[in-house]
Write a structure and sequence with these properties.
- The chain is mainly beta and about 300 residues long.
- It has a single domain, classed as 7 Propeller (Methylamine Dehydrogenase, Chain H), CATH 2.130.10.10.
- Helix content is about 0%, strand content about 55%.
- A hairpin with a 3-residue loop joins strand 19 and strand 20.
- The two termini are about 15 Å apart.
Length: about 300
């Protein structure tokens, strides 16, 4: 049944206005998204009209990571700078230089109103978005931290390191509660399953693995792509999830049994270079790539 539903998933349209690789994508309310690029531009796109929606931020160096709340956009740069932009006034309201290396991951947790930032040197920042203050800043012996996710109840934080380890923290005081080896050459993506007590990880080894969140024992492990898996996102109905990879492809999976449903690649008029990030919202599945394109997929 799942295969039948997604068999005809097609590209709705593409946007090719960034001048360099597009690294991340995040929400910007109904019908639009933000993207960031190596060209130093953060742009809002109207997904109904397939064009810019009048919001553009120019950064001093490439922007690697994005996240957003209802009121703010968070932008992480290749030099470690962190910008907070008010979406109503369209003005920058805070600017931080706490990180000294590239910020590879930003995650906003709406429940706690906290922003997580991670960088190339293994530093982790926990920011109180309400007060605008840094609550905690610490370093893991992990190398670059590209992967991070809050649990569905916001009581747990998972971080994935370049050392192949997954680090688990409680979110009251951010004490580490567990760590375990997960992927050869590094962990590159993490996502908590929305309907199971399971953490899903993707690695530079091209494997997908799932972990029981009570025992941290491995449940599933299989080669899902040819190269590093850069993102894992679940559909709004929680029945599917998508992965993207350096191998230029996107794959759709059944969230219940992890069976593949569909592959989206050049044969589907897809990306021609590494697919760096995904976002699944009410408009469909949005993907961004080193080929400078933003693609909307739906059925």
């Amino acid at each position: 049944m799942c295969k039948q539903r997604w068999f005809d998933m097609k590209k709705s349209f593409e946007i090719r206005e960034h001048a360099q690789s597009v690294y991340d994508v995040t929400h910007n309310g109904a019908g639009s998204v933000f993207t960031c690029s190596g060209d130093g531009f953060v742009v809002a796109w109207d997904l109904l009209l397939a064009k810019q929606s009048g919001f553009v931020v120019k950064t001093s160096v490439p922007a690697y990571s994005l996240s957003s709340s209802d009121q703010m956009l968070f932008v992480g740069l290749s030099n470690g700078d962190l910008h907070w932009v008010d979406l109503y006034s369209k003005q920058e309201i805070r600017f931080f230089t706490q990180h000294k290396s590239a910020i590879f991951r930003l995650v906003y947790d709406a429940t706690s109103q906290r922003l997580l930032s991670t960088d190339a040197d293994g530093f982790v920042g926990i920011w109180n978005v309400y007060s605008g203050k840094l609550e905690i800043f610490f370093q893991l012996p992990s190398g670059k931290i590209r992967a991070a996710a809050f649990s569905n109840d916001s009581n747990q934080l998972a971080l994935g390191g370049q050392d192949g380890m997954i680090y688990i923290f409680e979110t009251n005081y951010f004490n580490e509660t567990h760590r375990f080896f997960a992927h050869q050459e590094g962990v590159s993506s993490l996502a908590y399953h929305p309907q199971k007590n399971v953490l899903v990880s993707g690695g530079k080894d091209a494997y997908l693995r799932s972990w029981d969140c009570d025992t941290w024992l491995k449940e599933k492990a299989f080669p899902a792509h040819l190269f590093a898996i850069y993102d894992i996102v679940f559909s709004l109905n929680k029945q599917l999830f998508a992965t993207c990879s350096r191998d230029k492809s996107i794959k759709i999976w059944n969230a219940n049994n992890f069976e593949i449903v569909e592959k989206l690649d050049r044969k589907n008029e897809g990306h021609q270079h590494s697919v760096n990030a995904l976002l699944w919202n009410e408009n469909g599945l949005i993907s961004v790539s080193d080929d400078r394109r933003v693609i909307l997929w739906n059925n």
